[in-house]
């Protein structure tokens, strides 16, 4: 059931308030709210697979041009306010939210939850050596976790991957195919999946495996992680430039 409530957005199932920035949905959630939803989805073993995606200025800008991505985002159960830019823009437009819910931190909290609930996790995505290193690191950091399975993100036989995920009996699927690939993949195949919840985690396996460093604290504190990423990886320039465009749009155009 979805009820319209004006500037405050819409109230979704699970009592989540959904806001919109230029027609792009973002949920006004905290870590606690997301974890209480995943806890009940897992414990109730609901047959519906729930999807969690992370929202940042780059994705908002991409979804303005990419209707398929916009549709996929609208189908998600939770869209976390991952980027500093979306938190700033939402507050500027009068929405109330506590702060960021970052994809990487939420992933760690979900790994901890999976360990506490004794349910399995499946990791999909990244290059072969990256996903292997990430799985080793997760096992080291969460010694009682059950990794039900994993696979790199460069596959052709989608049905085989889905069957592997389902037969692993994992409850949580972390999907790291980058954006918008992971959002399109998950919304297309969600009805065939039997996991309770899947989260799109972008490049998080690169960070967990140590292949890519998370932006240093100074860049995080100055809210310049995006700028740090462009400088350290100039291939990201085109994507990174969507952020200043987003800022201009928020400042000068109405939503
Ligand atoms: N990736 C993948 N399969 C693909 C394309 C990308 O597994 O077909 C992985 C890639 O190896 C990397 C991640 O997806 O680990 C993309 O990272 P990026 O930083 O671009 O993602 P973002 O967080 O920006 O969406």
TrEMBL record:
Keywords: Glycosyltransferase, Transferase. GO terms for molecular function: hexosyltransferase activity. Signal peptide: none annotated. InterPro entries: WecG_TagA_CpsF. NCBIfam families: wecG_tagA_cpsF. This is Glycosyltransferase. It comes from Natranaerobius trueperi.
